[in-house]
Amino acid sequence: MNLILLGPPGAGKGTQAAKITEKYHIPQISTGDIFRWHISNGTELGLKAQEYMNHGELVPDCLVITIALKRLKEPDCENGFLLDGFPRTLEQATALDEFLKRHNKKIDHVLYVDADKELIMKRMMGRVVCRNCGASYQTVTLPPKKEGICDLCGGELFHREDDKPETVKNRIEVYEVQTRPLIEYYKQAGTLVPLDGIKDIDVLFAEIEELLG
Question: What's the pLDDT band for 117 if we cut at 50, 70, 90?
């Protein structure tokens, strides 16, 4: 089962991704997480990506495509995967389709989670992330059991640089311009499944379970 999670930043894709990977035992591939690993380890790629991410801008297609397709060649992707944050542009989508065609694979469903802009702003400005394991929480809708402490590993929770108000606004604007065209692209392909990101987390996941079986 090969899936894509699509939608604006802050719509709740990450939460649903975690549930899907746990239920269906397929790896979640988040280009954002991969780039953050490079940033924390001070690699050349990480330094290039950090400047874009800190300003809420998308990392250039050439870098994203290279790192994403390399990850899809790993053995754990052989029986399926969940792409979260890739593709984000038509160029990336085209490169992905060409890659999958060469490997006799296809995308089964594109789960499009959407939400109101004002709600997205509130969600993202309330998001905190674990410095140690990268787990994500929302201080209102999905708070940690103990304030400032990760439920999973006990690490410190913090607000990411790209979740600050001015950066969030810019990320949404960038999404509207560069990523919205993907909705029509996958609608034409017959794989797009619209989902309401405003719904309760468990209610939304139940709909996804019904779809995937």
Answer: confident
Catalytic residue (one of 36, 71, 123, 127): 127
180 is catalytic: no
132 domain-assigned:
no
Active site (annotated) includes residue 127:
yes
Range of the domain at 193: 2-115+165-212
Write down the catalytic residue from 36, 71, 123, 171. 171
Q: Which of 158-184 are b and which e, b meaning 16 or more Cβ less than 10 Å from the residue's Cβ?
A: eebebbeeebbeebbebbeebbeebbe
| DSSP element (H, E) containing 3 | strand 2-6
Query: Active-site residue 187, yes or no?
Result: no
Domain-located, residue 93: yes
Q: How many domains does the chain have?
A: 1
Write out pLDDT tens, residues 12-66: 888 899 899 999 999 999 887 888 788 888 888 888 888 887 777 778 898 889 8
What the block records as the tokens of 6 is 């699509």
Burial class (CB in 10 A: 0-12, 13-18, 19+), 145: exposed
| Marked catalytic residue, from 13, 36, 71, 123 | 13
Q: Which of 105, 122, 160, 164 is catalytic?
A: 160
